[in-house]
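User: For my dataset I need records formatted as: sequence, then structure tokens, nothing else. Please produce one.
Assistant:
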Amino acid sequence: MLFFRHLIHHNMFVDRVTLDLAAGKGGNGVVAWRREKYIPKGGPSGGNGGRGGSVILQADTQVYSLEWFRNRHHLKAENGRQGGPNNQQGGKGQDLILFVPCGTLVKDAVTGEVLHDLTEDKQAVTLCTGGKGGRGNDSFKTSTNQAPNYCTEGKEGTACSIELELKLIADIGLVGFPNAGKSTLISALSKVRVKIAPYPFTTLQPNLGYIETENYHRILIADIPGIIEGAHRNRGLGFEFLRHIERTKLLIFILDASGIDGRNPTEDLEVLRAELAAYNPEMLKRPYFVLLNKMDTEEAQEHVELFMENYSLDKNRLYLISASEGEGLDVLRKAICQETFE
């Protein structure tokens, strides 16, 4: 079997590709004869061709992106081999096994219909079936036809055009405005280095990290590029990456308490929740935490007091932190572990 497993490259995150796939053609049967005395024409001995290889898609927890497919849009399994003399059967073509991340949707490229949803490790689906091998002349021998002088060609394998769309299966999805500190937080919580800079839209693709618990369990975190007001109308980065937090167990709203960009956390939370509701109202029904970040700044106290006056959600799910200074992260990490493994 042909195996293609591909791991994430940090400079490229591909989460949507279109592929033309084809199974292998079956091998041809052959006409051949035995050279033995007293057997008509030596007797037929042409073997059958082998079946063509199939195309199989398999989910793998070690694969995080569809990047491997970025420049590989036409993929084909191996053809079956031709039969041989002395009743030799042609070899089967190798299956083409393509590994994709857990959370990959398989869609019809023309209609957009969802054909498969690969969510579990090692979950596999056969997309194209290899063609049947042709018959050699030996297989046509009957009591009334002792010396058939014909064979058949192998059948073509099936083919399809599909779209792969990745919806990451992360435990936690970080949601916040550009420059709210999501990249800093994911680095501090998971010790994963991501690009951090004091300007909007530093993150132009989802960053992934994980928290490792005392029991060596891993909690996967997806840092989604910043939402802005009007994202549902495709302002900024729009909703391009929000599908990656649709499956998360816990949403974390991260707010800039410093107000350094002329915004305030009260309005930011309202906008973030409104944009999520415009994308998918069900997302507001799942567990959440609200983080007031950058509490180490001088401006934070004034904004926090105003925020608390207007805050109507569960205060037990509100955390005051400074991701850059590490303040409040131990308590937050413990709360995340408890919430995730309940």
